[in-house]
Amino acid sequence: MNNFRKNPVSALWILPLAGLLPLPAVAQLVVSDTLTGAASTYGWSTLNGACLTAGDGTASTIPACKNLSYYNGKTQVGGVSGRLPDPVGQGALRLTNGDTGAGSNGNNQTGSVVSTAPFPTSQGVKVTFTTATYGGNGYSNGISGNAGKSGADGIAFFLMDGNKDPSIGSYGGSLGYSCSQGKSPGDGVDGGYLGVAIDEFGNFSNKNDSTSDGSGPNPGTIVVRGSGSITFTALYLLNDSYYPTRLSSSDRISAVQNTCATGVLQNWSGRTVTDANGKSISNKKSTTEPVRDYQLLVQPLKVSAPIFNQQAMNRPLRANANIFSYDLSITQDGLLSLSYNINNGVAQPVIAKQSITANNGPLPSSFRFGFTSGTGGGSNVHEILCFKAAQINAASGSAGTNVQQSARVQAGSQVYLAYYHPQNSWGQLTASSLVADAAGNVSINPVANWDGSCSLTGGACAATGTTTTAQNPQTRTLLSWSGTSGIAFQYDSLTTAQKNLLGGSTDGALRTSFLRGDRSAEVLLSGLGTGSFRRRDSVLGDIMNSSPTWVGAPSLPYDTAGTDLLFKTTVAEFGSAYASFSSTHATRPHTVYVGANDGMLHGFRAGANDASQKFSTSVTPNDGIDVLSYVPAAVISSIHPANTALDFSSTQYAHNAYVDATPGSGDLFYSGAWHTWLVGGLGAGGNATGTINDKTSSANGVLYALDITDPARFNESNASSLVLGEWDSSSIACVNVTCNTSLGSQYGTPIIRRLHDGNWAVIFGNGRNSATGTAGVFIMSVNATTGARAFRFLDTGAASLSSKNGIDYVVAADLDSDYVTDYLYAGDYQGKVWRFDLTSKDPAQWAAGSTPLFSTPSGQPITTSLTVNSVVQSTGNSRIVVAFGTGEQLPQTLTSGAAYAGNNQSFYGIWDWNMASWNGKSLVNYVSLAASQSFSVSNLALQTITTSGGGSGSVSGFRTVSQNPVCWKGSSVCASGNSQFGWKLNFSSNEQIIYNPQLAYGALIFNTTLPAVAQTLSCSNQLSSGYTMAISADTGGALTTSLFENAAKTAGIFATGKAIISGLGLSATGSPSIVTAGGSPFLVQQTISGVGIVTEINPPAGRSGRLTWVKLR
To answer: pTM of the full predicted structure?
Structure first.
C-alpha cells in the first residue's frame, strides 16, 4: 500500500474528507497551480519523489526537492542549470530524478501527487497541464523506434472519484493508475475514472503487463484508460463471498492480480460457486461476471516528436526538453476530448467529443486529480510544469500560446469577420451590419446577418440566433483543376491520379463527398458506427491567414477615356467600354471570397445593388450561401497524406494549411471584353508534409486564377471556363528565364494592373521558401487580343539557401496617374527594398534595379506591403517616399509554435531619390538627385514612441510620437544638416509589423503586434497585443492633429502638454478598413480575441498623395 506524505498544510485539506468539516473546496470553480515557485498553491497529497524543484522548505502541500530524504545521496539533475535547486519562479513539480547512466541516481524511483479537495463535475471539467521528460540514462527496451531508446517509464495523469480517499495504482507499466498483473500488491486507483499515460516504455497498453485488454508494448505513445476499482478492499465491497477477508495477504494479492489479468471477478471463496450467470465456478477460477478493469478508451497514439531527450548527459536542461501541453475536458454528460501540443505547436487530437459513459459509467459527483510517474532500469526526469482545472463554462482555453486569426476586416454596408477556432480546426465568416445611432456613433450589430459556417453546416446558429438548413453538399458548386483544365470537384470528374491521392477505390469517393460537406461518413458521437472520418464541428474549416475579399459591381476608375502618357497611345478599353461593362454588371451579386483550411476557397453570397446602386436583397439574398468553391489541385495532393495528424479527414487530424492566403480581385481587358478575375495563392498550404516554418526547406508554391465576371455562370458545368488555371513550382514556365524553382509559398495577395506593352497582367511576389531561395517578382501577362497567358520572372539576384529570401507583396506605382503601371516596389525577407522598372513597351526590358533602394540594418525582414507616397513639398516637385514596416511571423507546425522576428523592428520612410530616368520620360516630375547616392540608417530622421497606460472599453493604453523634421538631402528644410533620405520609427522590443499598412488622409495607419511570450510554465492562454498607429507619411512623426482625438476622449485618454496621440492599444489584427457614416470616417477592425471594433477617426489635412491607387472601402 502506498502511504502519502502528511504535512500540516495537507492535513488541513484532508480533514473534510473524513466528514468532520464541511467541504468549502467543492464550490471552487477554477484551480490553478503553476508549480514554479517556492510553494504550491493547491492542496496535494504527495508520495516518494514528488517535490518542487524551486521549493524552499516553507509550508506547502508539496515538499521542496532540496533536502528531500527520498533523494538522499543522489545528484538532482536537470532544471534550469542542470542541477537543482531552481530559482523561484522557474521551477516545476518533479516526480522522478534522472541519471547520466545506469544506477540508483534515477532508476527504480516513483513519485505521485493526488489532490486533497474534490472538484465538482456538475458542469463538466476542463484540465490543462504541461510536462517535460528528459535527462535519462538512454535505456532501451529492445523495441525498435526512437533510435532504440525507450525511456522509463512515463507519466500518468488521472481522474478519480472525489468521494474516495486519495490513492494511486501500481507502478511499472501501470504508471500508478491501473492495476497490475505482476506487481505486488497490484492495486489500481480505487475509484479511478480516467487515466492518461504519456508512455515512454510502452507497457501501459500492454495486456500482458497491466490490465486485461490492450496490445503489446507501444513505446512513445499517449494512451487513455477508463474506470476501475481493482483493489482487494473494493473487490470485497463488490462481492464479499468471492473475496472474503479471511484470505491471507498473499492470496489477496493473487486475487487482485488475477482479476486484473482477466477483467472478470474471481472466485476465491474456497469452494465451487454458481456465478450471476448460472455458471459453475471452481475455487480460484474466473467467473463470467465482468468488472471495470481500466479498459482502453483510446488505442496507443504515436506522438509526432520524441517524448524524452537529452539522454546520458551530465547536465540536461529543462529548456531543451520537448514540452508537451495537454488539454482534457469531460462534459457533464460524459463527452471526452483530449489533445496535446508540442512546444506550443498545433493542438493534436487524441479523442474528440466522444461519449465514454457506456464504458466508464456516469461521472461521479466530483473528481480528484492525480499525477504519477516511475522509473525502472531506465530513468528520466519527469516533471509537471503547470496544472489548471476549471468547470467547462469557466475555462479560458488550452495551454500554450494562441496564434491569432490575422485576417483583415472587409467593411462596407456590412462588416465581414473571419474566425479561427483551434479546437477541432473550424471557422466562421460572419456578415454584420454597420449601424449608426442618432448621434452618429457607428457600431457593429452584435447579431450577424449570416454566418458561412451555419450555411454549410446547418442547425442552431449562435451568430444569427436562428436555425439554418445546411446546403446540400451534392448541389454546391465546387471546382478544381485537372492539370490542364477546370473540372467539377466530383469524384468521377477527377483524374486517375487525383482519385488515388484521395484514397482511390477504398474510400476516395467517400472522402470527396466528405470534403464537399457530406457528413454521413463521420464517426458518431458514441465513437461507434461505420463512419471512419473525423466528426467536424463545422463544415467550414478554420480561416487563419486569409482575409475576406468582397467583390460587387465593377467600380474601378476606368470609365473615362484614357491615354498611356509615356507613349501618348490611347488605352482603348478605358472609357465607354468599361462604362458599358460596369453598367451591365451593376446589379451582379455581391460575393465574399475567403480561403479556408478545409481545402478550398469559398465564395459566399451577400446581396447586391439594385439599379439605383442601393444595397438590396430583393433579387439576390444576403444569406451567406456558398455559391462557388475552388479546391486547388495542390490541395488534392496534400489533403490526405500518410501522416494522420495532417490528414484532414482523419480522426487524428491536428491542423494543416490548405488555402491560407488572401485572394485578390480586379478587372482586366482581353479578347475584346472586360472580365473580373480572382487570383490567389495558398499561403503555407500545398505541402503534403505540413506547414514549413524554417528558412531552409523548399515549398511548393501555387497560384490559381478564376473568372468571376458573372456569378450567374457559377455552375460545375462551366468549370472549364471559370477556372483559368493553376500553376505550381513544378509547372510554371516563363518566357524569359527558367523560373519554376523560384516560385515559393504565396503568402501575399496578387494584383491586377495594365502595363505599357498594352496588356493587362497579374503581378505577384515569388513567395517564401523557393528552391533557389531568391527574391523576385512574377508577371503573368494576358494577351490583349487572344487572352493567352505568359509568365515573366524579374529576379533581384538576392538569393540565399542558408536563409532563403523571397517577396510576399508587390505594389504597383502609377507615377503619372494614367492608370498604367510604371514601377513596382517590393520588400524582401532580408530587409531589402527593390524597385522594378516597367516603363518600357518591350517586356524584355523590364527588370529589377541593380541594387536595392535601401537595406534595413541586421536584415530586418519585410513581409508586408509597402506604400508608395507622393509627398508634396512647400515648393517644387513632390517626393516619392516608400514606407514600410519590418517584422515576420513563421507559422505553427505540429512540433513548434509560431515564431517571430527577433531583435528590434521599425517602420521606415525611404526617399526614392533616383528619378532622373523617369523625369526624362515624363512631364510629371519628382525630386531627384543627379549623382549616385549611398546612405544608411544614420541618414534617416529618427522618431520616437512614448507609451502610456490608461483607457477604457476596447482601449488599453496610448502612444505619442515625436515630430522631428526630415532634413532632406539637397533641400533647405532645415537650417543645417540637410543630408537625410527619409525617416525611421523604432518599436519596442519584439514589437513588429506583420499586417499591411494603409495610407489615408496623409497618414500611415497600421497595426503593430507584440507577440505573446510562450508560457511553457503556465496553463493559461496568452494572447498577443498591439497598437493601432497613425503617423505622418511625410515624416514618420505625429500628425498635426490626432487621428484618434475623439476616440481618445471617449476612452478617457488625454496626452500631456502639446503631445499628439498617435496610437491606441486596441490589439487589432490585419489592415484597418475605413468606412464613412454621416460624413465621418471610422476605422473598422477585428481584435486579436476576434471581436469587431469601430473607432472614430479625425482626418488631418494631409499633403501626401497615394500612388498605388488601391481603392479604400
So the answer is: 0.91
